[in-house]
Design brief:
Layout lengths: L2 E6 L3 H16 L3 E2 L8 E6 L6 H18 L4 E6 L5 H10 L5 E3 L7 H11 L3 E3 L21 E5 L1 E2 L10 H4 L4 E2 L2 H13 L4 E5 L14 H9 L6 E5 L8 H9 L6 E3 L7 H6 L6 H14 L4 E8 L6 H14 L3 E6 L17 H24 L5 E9 L7 E5 L4 E5 L4 H4 L3 E9 L4 E5 L1
Parallel strand pairs: 1-2, 1-3, 3-4, 4-5, 5-6, 7-10, 10-11, 12-13, 13-14, 17-19
Antiparallel strand pairs: 8-9, 15-16, 15-18, 16-17, 18-19
Bound molecules: 5'-deoxyadenosine and iron/sulfur cluster.
Length: about 450
């Protein structure tokens, strides 16, 4: 019996692609194996956004070489954002030519065919074709990580070309799925017992289907689906967010009161060079509108420090906007040049030492704010949708509030009984990244 394992790096798009890949492999008779080192077939679903992504990726490939040597029947497949860069494929073909299958982000549905060709001909398979018509999502049978919540793509690709970002080059041009198709998929999910959906897109606010339906219209349609209790979405883009969408936080009862709204920088000069198409005043105006419509909304963000040309006063504007917004949580990144993006060629790259010093100051500020915000929940009773047993603390369960706060809590119930349910938890301790409590 053949076993498979998938190693997934990066964002939720990749996570969902991996669920679809697992579905295809299981349809071919492969059985899931947790440990990649003990599998007959491994798929590496790669990411190129993070710092040193290339180095780490080639490091892991090098480790698999040993398995390949000792077991010639072992099959290694590489997909995701890495092979979307021609120089990476060249390097694989030159230094790691023993890799069996390499396929791009728009060639996922071809995996069964590539495996068949590999087995028939013994020849290595390479399939990286941009703008390949993507197979309809309804023909996919993903193996989902959870029974109660599901990731649902609403757009693919990105047209924004932020100057630091590799995604528009690795995921192709933006395409929106038809509203009717997304609704059909979610209705099917609901009938399978799914209660929460996460609508996914690089920029959900620019969603527009072929007959002109907007993102707000999509949310309203999903809000009507029976069985679905929670709707989330990511990622929002401040340049495209509409008043109609913001209004959904008032009118759509299933829409979770949480938004992931990357700011990237608080300096207008830096935002311009990042090609973000908004300024700090516009960003703060959006935050005010969101809080006016939904006072309890939690806000998460992404921030890059050390973007080329960032001065101390630009950076202070980032600290200032963070203090004004008071984010519930923030993902902070040190800028790292991505080959092929405009910013990698900017001449005023910021010194590493300065980047790290700014990064530490930013993290200290953000962590302090997150902790203060979490303290507001002390003693309160919150509704938590349970994911399952906690990965970090024994004998506790973990789940998320409507506002996406991570809650670890104790309960007398068994895992089968509680997973996927919404329970009431009294908060007894507050930390920077989580809340602790007990079910009542
Ligand atoms: N350097 C640092 N951070 C980056 N991000 C994207 N590209 C880069 C880069 N070259 C960050 C952005 C984005 C998040 C997913 O990753 O903040 O929102
Ligand atoms: Fe990258 Fe900008 Fe597109 Fe987000 S919106 S994926 S940061 S180019």
């Amino acid at each position: 019996m053949s076993t498979y394992s998938i190693i997934t790096y990066g964002c939720q798009m990749n996570e969902h692609d991996s669920e679809n890949i697992a579905g295809m492999l299981e349809a071919l008779g492969y059985i899931h194996e947790e440990d990649p080192w003990a599998s007959n077939l491994v798929v590496m679903n790669t990411c190129s956004v993070r710092e040193n992504a290339d180095k780490r990726f080639f490091g892991v490939l090098g480790q698999f070489k040993k398995i390949k040597k000792s077991n010639p029947d072992f099959v290694l497949c590489v997909c995701g954002c890495m092979p979307q860069q021609p120089r990476i494929v060249e390097e694989i073909n030159k230094r790691f030519s023993w890799v069996d299958i390499v396929f791009g982000t728009q060639n996922i549905a071809q995996l069964p065919e590539l495996l068949e060709n590999l087995h028939k001909t013994g020849k290595k398979q390479r399939a990286i074709i941009d703008n390949n018509p993507r197979i309809a999502e309804e023909e996919m049978k993903p193996v989902r990580m959870h029974n109660h919540k599901a990731l649902v793509n609403i757009t693919y690709g990105c047209n924004n070309f932020c100057t630091y970002c590799i995604v528009p080059y690795t995921r192709g041009r933006e395409k929106s799925r038809m509203l009717s198709e997304v609704v059909c998929e979610i209705e099917r999910l609901a009938s399978d017992g799914v209660r929460e959906v996460m609508l996914l897109g690089q920029n959900v606010d620019s969603y527009k289907d072929a007959i002109g339906n907007s993102f707000a219209e999509l949310i309203k349609a999903v809000n009507e689906i029976e069985g679905i209790e929670r709707i989330r979405f990511m990622t929002s883009h401040p340049k495209d967010i509409s008043d109609e969408m913001i209004e959904c936080f008032r009118t759509c009862d299933k829409l979770c009161r949480n938004i992931y709204l990357p700011v990237q920088s608080g300096s207008d000069r830096v935002l311009k060079r990042m090609n973000r198409h908004y300024d700090r005043a516009r960003y703060l105006e959006i935050v005010d509108k969101l809080r006016a419509v939904c006072p309890e909304i939690t806000i998460s963000t992404d921030i890059i420090v050390g973007f080329p040309g960032e001065t101390e006063s630009d950076f202070e504007e980032t600290l200032d906007i963070a203090r004004r917004v008071r984010y519930d949580s923030a993902f902070t990144f040190i800028y790292s040049p991505r080959e092929g993006t405009p910013a990698a060629k900017f001449e005023d790259q910021v010194d590493d030492v300065i980047c790290h010093e700014r990064f530490d100051r930013l993290v200290e500020l953000m962590d302090g704010i997150s902790l203060e915000k979490n303290k507001e929940y002390m003693g309160k009773v919150l509704e938590v949708m349970v994911d399952g047993l906690s990965k970090t603390s024994p004998n506790t369960y973990s789940g998320r509030t409507d506002g996406f706060k991570l809650v670890n809590f104790t309960s007398d119930k068994s895992e089968e009984e509680i997973a996927g349910q919404i329970v009431k938890v009294k908060i007894t301790e507050t930390k920077t990244f989580s809340l602790e409590g007990m079910e009542i």
